[in-house]
User: Which sequence fits this backbone?
């Protein structure tokens, strides 16, 4: 029953999120601030992780295809598939659930326990709409950019790792990348990214908005938000993969 | 004028407000006093619509709050200024942005008009040249003054203050009290203050409502508070040694 209560409360929150903003000018200002906070400030970590995970995928693949009967271009092929289909959309979303999700929960939660949200409500402002809608729009606009960047850097990292360790030649790797390329895979990855980004912001905001108490409860809510976001992302990944590729 | 009639509020098994009624008049500073846990904050939050009372009604100049549509409630809230116990300033905004926030949300003024108004109210609370500072750079008293400036920037009809003196030294507390009193008279507002600070009560309390265990145990003015025989208020007022000595001196006279 407890879970049903939270699911109901979550959807009631979504109803408030998608109301018309009190003032569009303020909404646009908030939106650009959120793109900076939630998107641009994640560029570094996304780029760093994508580059090195791409490298690890290609090295692992290269070390596991030592047979002379298996062509070397399969390393590029496997790296491309892994990075585009799973690593960039899913793995990056789980990482961002930790970084951005906890930031959202703790910032909204701190506003709640320091009565800043009450101050908004008393002024007659729909606090959920004011705080959450710009975040939702910001991640829906910017996370596809982050994921596409992660795809490029992952594949580039795979190539760089192979060249540095002398495990394959550039020509083989490029042939593997070009082999059997299906643009639908990019579409599939971006659909997953949009769903995961939405889930991440809304679950984190829900937990932040419901905090009561003090610093300890804000910390607990942040942890809970990251755990639930990760669980929902992993479950949705399973169903989306079946729906879109099955 | 704010009229509260027989409000009850429970949280689960806990009955916090047990049929409180009171009137708060325009141009006067009314104090709601009582020990911690007596229901003052729940009472104020119920008046502000942050909690829905289980029964009873609250009206703002004849407009019964709980009968209004969401839009009408929001309109009433735009007429309310609130000073929170912890000031509740927005951390990510400077002093200027904090005070300007209600103007940006609810008016179509130009930047210059808004800035003029912000500077006017900051001057009114004696806080000029702090526009670009952030809340983390302000002292407790300065935060309270910014909160008051933000509360009055829209010329509200009703001002609510939740323990405006908590955490302040006695001298700053008196400055804040007098500021609230002056502003109440200047803007002819209906001001309601939650407090358990007897100095504030004696300084600015035109009307006093005393809550105990969720009931209204006494109602009167600062002139009558020392003369009452009501046991609950006598216990509360004379709980400090200073006031015990004042009472002894009065009795000896």
Assistant:
């Amino acid at each position: 029953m407890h879970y049903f209560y939270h699911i109901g409360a979550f959807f009631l929150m979504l109803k408030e999120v998608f109301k018309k903003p009190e003032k569009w000018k303020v909404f646009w200002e908030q939106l650009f601030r959120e793109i900076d906070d939630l998107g641009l400030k994640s560029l570094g970590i996304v780029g760093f992780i994508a580059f090195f995970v791409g490298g690890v995928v290609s090295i692992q693949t290269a070390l596991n295809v030592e047979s002379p009967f298996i062509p070397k271009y399969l390393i590029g092929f496997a790296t491309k598939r892994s990075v585009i289909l799973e690593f960039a959309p899913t793995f990056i979303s789980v990482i961002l659930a930790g970084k951005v999700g906890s930031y959202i929960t703790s910032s909204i939660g701190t506003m709640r326990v320091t009565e800043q949200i009450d101050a908004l409500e008393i002024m007659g402002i729909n606090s959920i709409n004011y705080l959450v809608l710009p975040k939702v729009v910001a991640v829906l606009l910017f996370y596809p950019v982050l994921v596409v960047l992660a795809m490029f850097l992952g594949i580039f990292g795979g190539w760089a790792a192979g060249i540095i360790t002398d495990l394959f030649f550039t020509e083989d790797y490029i042939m593997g990348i070009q082999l059997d390329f299906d643009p639908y895979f990019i579409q599939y990855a971006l659909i997953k990214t949009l769903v995961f980004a939405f889930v991440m912001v809304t679950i984190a905001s829900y937990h932040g908005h419901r905090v009561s108490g003090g610093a300890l409860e804000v910390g607990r809510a942040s942890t809970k938000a990251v755990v639930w976001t990760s669980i929902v992302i992993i479950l949705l990944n399973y169903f989306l993969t079946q729906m879109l590729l099955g | 004028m704010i009229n509260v009639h027989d409000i009850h509020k429970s949280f689960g098994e806990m009955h916090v407000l047990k049929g409180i009624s009171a009137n708060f008049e325009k141009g006067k500073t009314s104090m709601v006093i009582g020990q911690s846990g007596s229901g003052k904050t729940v009472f104020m939050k119920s008046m502000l619509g942050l909690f829905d009372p289980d029964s009873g009604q609250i009206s703002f100049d004849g407009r019964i709050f709980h009968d209004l549509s969401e839009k009408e409630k929001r309109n009433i809230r735009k007429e309310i200024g609130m000073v929170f116990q912890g000031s509740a300033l927005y951390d990510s905004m400077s002093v200027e942005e904090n005070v300007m926030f209600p103007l940006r949300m609810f008016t179509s003024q130009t930047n210059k008009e808004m800035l003029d108004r912000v500077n006017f109210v900051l001057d009114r609370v004696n806080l000029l040249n702090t526009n670009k500072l952030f809340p983390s750079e302000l002292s407790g008293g300065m935060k309270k003054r910014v909160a008051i400036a933000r509360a009055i920037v829209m010329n509200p009809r009703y001002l609510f203050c939740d323990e405006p003196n908590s955490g302040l030294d006695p001298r700053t507390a008196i400055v804040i009290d007098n500021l609230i009193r002056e502003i109440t008279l200047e803007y002819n507002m209906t001001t309601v203050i939650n407090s358990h600070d007897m100095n504030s009560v004696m300084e600015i309390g035109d009307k006093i409502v005393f809550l105990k265990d969720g009931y209204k145990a006494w109602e009167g003015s600062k002139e009558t508070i020392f003369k009452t025989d009501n046991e609950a208020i006598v216990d509360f007022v004379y709980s400090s040694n200073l006031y015990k000595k004042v009472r002894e001196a009065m009795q000896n006279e």
Remarks:
- Chain A has a mean pLDDT of 93.
- The interface with chain B takes residues 22-23, 25-26, 110-111, 114-116, 118-119, 121-125 of chain A (CB under 8 Å).
